[in-house]
């Protein structure tokens, strides 16, 4: 990814005077095609509301080949290229609190791109207590995941309702030689850390968990260039930076031996302190009401001697949740020295010797 500052100068005649306006902006070049000839160009203002635009450009000349979104606001955006660079899917989320996003697909002809009209996509099966997709509290997101070969594109279509949860469908679109699309398969997505996160008690956050899911996604601005993402469904990990009211937090998914979920929720210091590391740790498991509930019993060997129901916290310690694996690290707050490593065995955490 390449980032640079731009200065755009515009002038106009006001009476006999010349009025010049100087606007500072950022330019990001990301998501290069496999053959290296094209990329995604994002330009946005350096101050709120970070308005800008996106386009596909020629990497050699920086000439705009295909304007994409003239009213883009800094948020999650990406191109997903086919291996032969002949087809590309574009996705942009507009605003962290506006998670709705659609996928557009283009085919390449020499140095130009033409949009492919996509068929109506099937919808995921919502939880029984959820409302229809047209409900004001339900948002729809259609995001490209990856190409399988040069003709099959995997998409995820998600419905998210702040009151009743989430449902997602994995859809494979196939494209023939004339670039006509058809639906090859559609499967309900497996339950993941996202679904369990949405079932956490809302009093643990400044706002519903669904809003913080949107923030976690939205702040993953340029995913093409990030080796680690805010949400890793495969490994059961997610993180989100805080704001003036909400401390930053991380969530890790563990499994009991019978496959029941156990969520570890770690939070940073109070937002105004802005210190790195997780100062607070609490565990949640599935309750009889279908929601994630605080674990009432001891299952974590913590030297601070805290109440497990209200969480583990001690000013002398900080926690590292695992992006992969089953081990939580306890560090000294001031020095960062590793004090303990505790590993999940399917029933409880055990301190490593």
Description:
- The protein has 2 helices and 24 strands.
- The longest helix is centred in the middle third of the chain and has 10 residues, at 209-218.
- It folds into 2 domains: 2-189, no CATH class; 196-351, no CATH class.
- Strands 14, 15, 16, 17, 18, 19 and 20 form a 7-stranded antiparallel beta sheet that branches.
- The model is unreliable at 7-22 (pLDDT under 50).
- It has helices at 193-198, 209-218, and strands at 2-14, 17-30, 38-45, 51-58, 64-73, 77-81, 87-92, 103-109, 112-116, 138-148, 152-161, 165-175, 181-188, 231-232, 237-240, 249-255, 261-267, 280-286, 292-294, 312-313, 317-320, 327-332, 338-344, 349-351.
- It has 353 residues and is mainly beta.
- A hairpin with a 5-residue loop joins strand 3 and strand 4.
- The two termini are 42 Å apart.
């Amino acid at each position: 990814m390449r980032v640079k500052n731009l200065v755009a100068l515009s002038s106009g005649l006001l009476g006999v005077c010349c009025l010049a306006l100087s606007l500072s902006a950022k330019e990001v070049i990301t998501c290069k095609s496999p053959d290296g000839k094209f990329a995604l160009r994002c330009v946005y203002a350096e101050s709120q509301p970070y308005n800008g635009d996106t386009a596909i450009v020629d990497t050699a000349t920086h000439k705009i080949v295909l304007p994409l979104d003239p009213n883009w606001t800094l948020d999650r955006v990406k191109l997903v290229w086919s291996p032969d660079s002949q087809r590309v899917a574009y996705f942009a989320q507009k605003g962290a609190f506006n998670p709705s996003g659609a996928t557009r697909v283009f085919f390449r002809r020499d140095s130009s791109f033409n949009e492919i009209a996509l068929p109506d996509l099937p919808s995921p099966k919502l939880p029984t207590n959820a409302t229809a997709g047209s409900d004001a509290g339900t948002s729809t997101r259609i995001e490209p995941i990856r190409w399988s070969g040069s003709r099959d594109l995997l998409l995820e279509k998600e419905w998210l309702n702040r009151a009743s949860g989430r449902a997602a469908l994995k859809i494979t679109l196939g494209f023939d030689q004339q670039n006509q699309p058809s639906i090859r398969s559609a499967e309900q997505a497996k339950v993941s850390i996202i679904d369990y996160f949405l079932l956490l008690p809302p009093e643990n956050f400044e706002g519903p968990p669904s809003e913080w899911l949107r923030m976690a996604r939205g702040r993953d601005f340029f995913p093409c260039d990030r080796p680690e993402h805010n949400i890793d469904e495969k490994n059961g990990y997610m993180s989100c930076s805080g704001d003036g009211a909400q401390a930053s937090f991380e969530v890790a998914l563990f499994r009991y031996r019978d496959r029941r979920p156990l969520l570890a929720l770690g939070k940073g210091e109070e937002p105004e302190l802005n210190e790195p590391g997780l100062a607070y740790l609490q565990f949640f498991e599935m309750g009889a009401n279908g929601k994630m509930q605080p674990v009432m019993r001891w299952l974590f060997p913590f030297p601070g001697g805290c109440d497990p129901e209200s969480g583990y916290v001690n000013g002398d310690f900080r926690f590292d949740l695992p992006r992969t694996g089953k081990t939580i690290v306890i560090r000294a707050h001031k020095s960062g020295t590793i004090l303990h490593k505790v590993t999940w065995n399917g029933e409880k955490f055990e301190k490593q010797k």
